[in-house]
Amino acid sequence: MVTVDFHHVSVLLEESVSAMVTNPAGVYVDCTLGGSGHAAQIVGRLNSLGRFIGIDQDPAAIKTGQVRLANASCRVDIVQDNFQNIGRVLDNLHISKVDGILFDLGVSSHQLDIAERGFSYMQDAPLDMRMDPMANFSAYDIVNDYSEEQLTQIIREYGEDRWAKRIAQFIVKERLIEPIGTTGQLVTVIKKAIPAAARRDGPHPAKRTFQAIRIEVNNELGILKEAFMTSVERLAVGGRLCIITFHSLEDRIAKQTMQYMAKGCICPLSLPVCMCDHKPQVKILGKPRVPSAIELEENPRARSAKLRVAEKIGL
Fold first, then answer.
1. SS3 of 153, please?
2. Which of 191, 219, 267, 286 is the most exposed place for a label (fewest CB within 10 A)?
3. Please, what is the Cα angle at 284 between 280 and 285, to 5 degrees?
4. One domain for residues 174 and 127
5. Domain coverage including residue 150
6. How far is the first Cα of the chain from the last one, in angstroms, to the nearest whole number?
7. Are both 244 and 305 inside the same structural domain?
8. How do residues 254-284 score in pLDDT, each as one tens digit?
């Protein structure tokens, strides 16, 4: 159900918008519109010559953006699509270059808090986890159809859970009795799989598995590098790419992609002369920024967030 009640607490709001918006008459893209928290701050800094493009695959985010940005003084375009298609989105809008692009990765507060979306291990709901509700592949398909080996791999790789193999074994055993159809059922299975001593400390025992399944459902990591590189191609010289990450896997991709685009020659050291003709496309602006103590007190979900910023340079 589409609703304008899309509650999401934007993380590193001031830091990201201040880093990105350098020209009030510029063109800026928010690739993860969400609850329009960052978007509202961005359009608030643009004048009538400026332009804002908001992208999201969640129809609730699209509806919220249309309402919350309705009175913006700049031009606003809101597009329902996956940010991996940012090049196509800009082409369809006849936009060649932009002055800033923002990615606020991961799941939104709204998606976590709306039980029926099936993202949260804290609420019982149908197994779903689709960021695009129209997609035909959900968490239910992974939990009930993936082999034990496939489940082990994604829980180990995307959830970084040392109990991955045991969790996968318990899921496969449980679904032989009946399909696992709800988040509550899955949480119960995970708790059975993880020894009691290991459950006493650290985060909720289901946190890592839920993260892994969500990443797999939405192919969250698979689309990042290409989206980041396409974004840099579409930046004007001096334009900024800002990426907010929430866990080590996506942050590693952001870091490595920025480092690659900031490098000059990438030839093997054994070659006496450069053969690659690889030129740096960006310069990295400072170290990753993290939430302040005040922000963490107000929004504990921000504790793992990092903001990385790069600026497009001339070739």
1. helix
2. 286
3. 145
4. yes
5. 115-218
6. 47
7. yes
8. 999 999 999 988 888 888 888 888 889 999 9
